[in-house]
Amino acid sequence: AEEGGEAAAVEEAAAVAVAAADEGAIRCIVQNDDMNLGKWPLYKTQWRGAGVAVPVFGLRSQEGMGVGEFLDLKAMADWCAKSKMKILQLLPVTDTTTHWDERDSYPYSSISVFALHPLYLRIQSIKNIPADIKAEAEKEVKRLNDPKYYTDTQWDEDLQTELDRPLHYPEVINTKRKLLWKLHQAIGAEVLESAEFRTFFDRNERWIRPYGVFCWLRDFFGTADHENWGALGTGKVSLEKLRQLSAPDSDLYKGISFYWVVQYWLHLQLKEASEYCKSKGVVLKGDLPIGIDHDSVDAWFEPHLFNMNKKTGAPPDDYAQDGQNWGFPTYNWGEMRKDGFGWWRARLGAMSEYFHAYRIDHILGFFRIWEMPATATGGLLGKFSPCLPITKEELDREGIDDIDRLCEPYVKRHLMERLFGHDWKMIADKWFDSWGGDTYRFKPGLWSEVAIRDIVAREGSPIGYKQPKEILQGMNTLINNVILLRDDHEPWTKFYPRIEMWKTSSFDELHGNTKHKLRTMYEAFFWGKQDQYWADEAMMKLPPLLDASSMLVCGEDLGMIPACVAGVLDKLVIMGLRIQRMPPPSVESKFGSCDSYPYMSVCTPSCHDMSTVAGWWEEDHGRRQEFWNNMLQRPGDAPGKCTPEVATMITEQHLWAPSCFAIFPIQDLLAMEDSLANHNAKSDQINWPPNPQHYWRWRCKTSMEDLLKNNNFSDRLKHMVQNCGRDGGY
C-alpha cells in the first residue's frame, strides 16, 4: 500500500498479514480488520497492543478436569476483550507423551511437532458422547477440582516452596486416557467413517499416520525410545509400511486409530477456541519450540533431518549458571534445505490453522545452536553449531602447542582432594588411571557425564557418607575441566573454546601469558569472528519460516546474543523480546529502560523461565532497592513485598513502552489486585531452567469464573490499557 494508502489496498494486504515492501527488504505488518485491531498499513503507524501470557495447563475452571483445556481459552478471550487485551499468548500445546507421568509435563519436549496434547481435550464436550461416559467424565471433573483432593502438601523441590492445588499431571492424563479409550470403543468407528474425519485425516496424513503408529508402538513396548523397538525402531520406516500396519484390516488398527480420533477431537476444540478468540478481536499467539524430543515421531520417521548423536541446550546465563542441556537432537539443516525446508513449512502451516501469531522459542538457535555431545548431561561441554573454529595454525602462531593439556580434563590430586575430601583415592582408583606424579586421566569410556551418572544410579555412591548428587557434582567438575574442545571431524586441527574457560582450575593453573592469549582468542571467537557467518545462516533459515504462513512472528532472543542478531531481526521485521531484568549486552544498566525499547519488540516484566515480578521482588533485596530508587524513582527503602501499588507501577511502565506488544504473565497482572494475587509469590514461578526434569504443574490461583466476575479489576485494567494508548487505536 502506498503511504496514506487507500482502504482497498490495505484490505488486500490484510489478507496475508505480512506484506512485502521495498523489494522485500522491509516488511509492513498488517492485521485482519475483522479481528478489530485497527488498520496497520505501514511500519510507522505505531499501532500498539497489550496482552496476557498463560499456559493452557495453568488455567483453572469449573469445567476443566484438573487442568486447563482448549475450551477454557474462550473464557480467557472474554476476559481479554473486557480488559482491552488484544493478545493471548500460550506455551506449546503439542503432545509430549513418552512416559504417561510427570516427566511429560515439559511442554517444549514434543513427541510430534504437529499433534496436539490429549491433556487439553474437554471430554464431556465431545460431540455425540454417550450419556454414561459423559456422566463419568463430569464426576472426574468434580473429583480433580475438589480442594479436598489435595490433602497432602504439594512441595516443589526446585523452588523450595509449597504449591496451591497444582496440576497433578499423572492422575489427570491417565484419567483422560481411560475415558478416551472408552469413548473410542463406543463411537470411534462412527467418527472414523464420517466425511469430516476423512477430510481431516487426508489433509494431515503425512504426520498423523506415523503419529498413530508411533503411539501404539510406544505403548506396546513400554518405551518411546524407538531404538528398543527391534526392526521397526531402526532405519527409515516408509509411509507405505505405515499404511500396511495401520490399514483397517490390520490387527493394530483399533489401537492406532484411537490416537487419530483423539487428534481429530482436539483439532475441533482448539479450532473452536481459535475462532472464538478471533470473533472477540483477540490474537491467539502460539509458541514454536526450538527442539523435538529425542524419542519423538519426527526423529523416528524422518531421522535424516536430525543429528541424533547430538544434544541441544543453551550456554550459561542468568537462568542456569552451568548452561542447559535439553536433550533434543540438533537439526540437520543441510538435509532440510534440500526440499526447501518442507518439514518447517508443514509445521508452520499446521500452526496457522489455530494461531494468528507465534513466538519462536530461542530464535538464536536459527543463527547457531548450542550443541553438546550425546555423552553430556550438562551444558558446559557445548559449542555453537555451526561456527568457525580456532585452527591449529592460529594456536601455533601464538606459541600454544600443548594441545592435549588444553583438550583433556585436567585432573590433579589436589583438585580431587578438594572435591572429595580425604577419601579422594576411592574416586581415583574407581574412575581414573594414574598418569605420573599427581596427574590422572579418565579410564577409557568414562570421560562422560552420562556414563558416570549411569554408574552412580546403578551402584550408588562410592563414598558411603557422601550423597550420589555430591559425587556427580564433583565428577562433572572434573569432566568439564577443559579449555579447548576438539572438532568431531578434524580433531587435530580444529578447536573451540570451552565456554567460560577461565572458571576452570585447568585455566587457572596456566602461565599468565598463555591465559592472556587464550582470553584474547576467546573474545574474538565469540564476539566478532562469527557475526557475518551466523547472520548468513539465519538469513538462509528464517525467511522460509516467515513465508510459510500469514502468522505474525516474534522471536525470543535472550541469552548470549551475537551482534548480528538485531540487524537480521530488523531486516526480517521479527519482533525481539525485552525483559526489564535481562537487558541486552548493549545496555550497561542492570535493568532495561522501558521507554527506550524499539517499536519492533515485545516487552514483558517476566516470563515462564524466571520468577514473577513479585517473586523476584522478594528474593533479591539489593536489586529490588536499586530498582525502587532508580527505575521507579522512589525515595527511601523499598517495600519488602511487591504490593499491588508496586505491581501497578511496573505494569504501567511496560504499557507506556514504545514496544508494539506489551505482554504480561497473568501472575504479574493479578499481583495488582490483593484479592487475586498469590501471596506465596515463589510458587507462581512456572519453570526452573537449571533442572531439565522440572515438573511443570503451576496453575492459576484464580479461576476463570472468578476472574470474569471481578468487574472492578477488568475495568481498572481496561482503563490502564486505554490511557497508555494500547487499546487497538492509533
Automatic annotation (TrEMBL):
UniProt keyword annotations, A-Z: Carbohydrate metabolism, Cytoplasm, Glycosyltransferase, Transferase
Lineage: Eukaryota, Cryptophyceae, Cryptomonadales, Hemiselmidaceae, Hemiselmis
Protein name (database record): 4-alpha-glucanotransferase
Natural source organism: Hemiselmis andersenii
EC assignment: 2.4.1.25
Top EC class, one word: transferase
Matching PANTHER family: 4-ALPHA-GLUCANOTRANSFERASE, PTHR32518
Molecular functions (GO terms): 4-alpha-glucanotransferase activity
Domain of life: Eukaryota
Primary localization: cytoplasm
Similarity comment text for this entry: Belongs to the disproportionating enzyme family.
Catalytic activity field: Transfers a segment of a (1->4)-alpha-D-glucan to a new position in an acceptor, which may be glucose or a (1->4)-alpha-D-glucan
Any one annotated GO CC term: cytoplasm
Transmembrane segments: none
Compartment(s): Cytoplasm
InterPro entries: GH, Glyco_hydro_77
GO BP terms in the entry: carbohydrate metabolic process
Any Pfam family the entry gives: Glyco_hydro_77
